[in-house]
Amino acid sequence: MPIPLRVQVGARSGRSVGPDVDAGVEQALVAVAERALCRGAHAGMELLLRETLRLTGASGAALFDGRVCVARVGSGIPLPMSGGGRMLKVWPERADGEVLERLSAFGSTLLAARARESAANARHTKLLAQRRALEREVARWEQRRSNAAHDLRTPLMVIKGYLDMMMKGIAGPMNATAQRYLDRMMRAAQDQRALIDHRLGRGEVTDLRPLLHAAFGPTSRHAQRCTVTLALPERPLLVKRARLEMEIWMRAMAQGLASTRATTMALQVEALEPTSCWRVHVTTRGGDAPSPKALIRMRELTRRLGGTLQAPTDEEPRWVAQLPAELGPPGTG
Predict the structure, then answer these.
(1) Which domain covers residue 266, as residue numbers?
(2) Which of 42, 52, 199, 286 is buried deepest, with most CB atoms within 10 A?
(3) Residue 233 burial (CB count, 10 A)
(4) Alpha-carbon distance 66 to 312, whole Å?
(5) What is the pTM of this model?
(6) Cα separation, 159 vs 185, whole angstroms
(7) Tens digit of pLDDT for each residue in 149-182?
(8) Signal transduction histidine kinase dimerisation/phosphoacceptor domain: from which residue to which, for each copy (predicted)?
(9) Residue 211 and residue 185 in one domain
């Protein structure tokens, strides 16, 4: 059942519209309301003023917000309002006060909507300016980070180069004491380089622990289909990739393991300090081999992360995935 025009107009203006109001005014106000919704309050005000001239036969019309003329159409110059408030004014003065009252009430609604739009645009402009200022500040700090990393790495590379030549005997033979000192200096240089990379390195890291719990924890779908055991280190499982990439990889792994229809599953994660990797072991019992499509997707996504994936074989009946880890600077656990 269509909504009557007078009901639509009343909903827009907040006032009841009786059946005795001219149908032409109702149709005009509905058209103005639709224009305001589609193109904004200013477009609605322009159409309202044109409809006012058509309905009243006046030579000019204007909308006032206090003493400020917000919009006007027609010929002539509107005189400023003596009082405050929002209202519609036409010239020359007309006798059909009921029509003007209805149009003026709707004009007040449009003026209030225009004020809200102006405030929202001002907030948007302010937020956009703040965002651009933050982007410039981030760019300056990024340049400072890059310069600091370069300035710290350059002399360290020279030191490591001379230490490497001395350890190879290019500078002549050395006794055991000198060799021991060189070993300590080389380890200190390597630790310093790792610390610089950790503090001033660039790139996102993601904690694998919450993703593993979401995919294989007690409340996951895997736990509803089979018995799952998780053995995770106490430390955060930081991987040198963005969270979105890790979520896609984890979803593919969960779907691939689910395709085996295993009855039990044991998942274990351990750190490989020398290679800065996380090794993920998954041992399954029962079920079948994964689907070829799922296995190809799992291997491809693991390769994109810079890792490797080994499917179960007769010699090694376990899934083994290795992912690049962010293990922190030397000396951290």
Answers:
(1) 206-324
(2) 52
(3) 13
(4) 79
(5) 0.44
(6) 9
(7) 888 888 888 998 888 888 888 888 888 898 889 8
(8) 142-206
(9) no
